[in-house]
Automatic annotation (TrEMBL):
Gene3D superfamilies: Plant lipid-transfer and hydrophobic proteins. Residues 1-29 form the signal peptide. Keywords: Signal. The keyword tRNA-binding does not apply. Transmembrane segments: none annotated. This is Bifunctional inhibitor/plant lipid transfer protein/seed storage helical domain-containing protein.
């Protein structure tokens, strides 16, 4: 059971990073992704950014994948239960270290940035 919780926490944390990375890109005419494409994108990101759970800095590949991710694949899955597991302040710091700005007070699913 503990392994399952760890896996869920990894996935949730990575999804939060995806969301926050693309907040500044909203409204820029991104093509719609299929459900299958979104699922694959999330899987790749989770694998690329696992080191973030140990509070190690993101790798260049993790930053690359975060910058290429699509927010429309993530916001719908951020429920109150998932949002309770995410350290939004840490996510914002990591995203900024990847060279991206994060808008203040943006709501995505059940997350609002500081």
């Amino acid at each position: 059971m503990e392994g399952h919780k760890g896996s869920v926490r990894i996935t949730i944390t990575i999804l939060c990073f995806i969301v926050l990375m693309h907040l500044s890109d909203l409204g820029k005419g991104v093509e719609a992704m299929t459900a299958g494409e979104c699922k694959q994108e999330r899987k790749v990101l989770v694998n690329a950014c696992k080191s973030l759970l140990a509070r190690r800095g993101p790798s260049s590949y993790c930053c690359q994948r975060l910058r290429a991710a699509h927010v429309e694949c993530v916001c719908p899955v951020i429920t109150p239960k998932l949002a309770a597991l995410i350290d939004v302040n840490y996510a914002v710091r990591v995203i900024q270290s990847c060279g991206r700005q994060v808008p203040r007070h943006f709501k995505c699913g059940s997350i609002t940035t500081p």
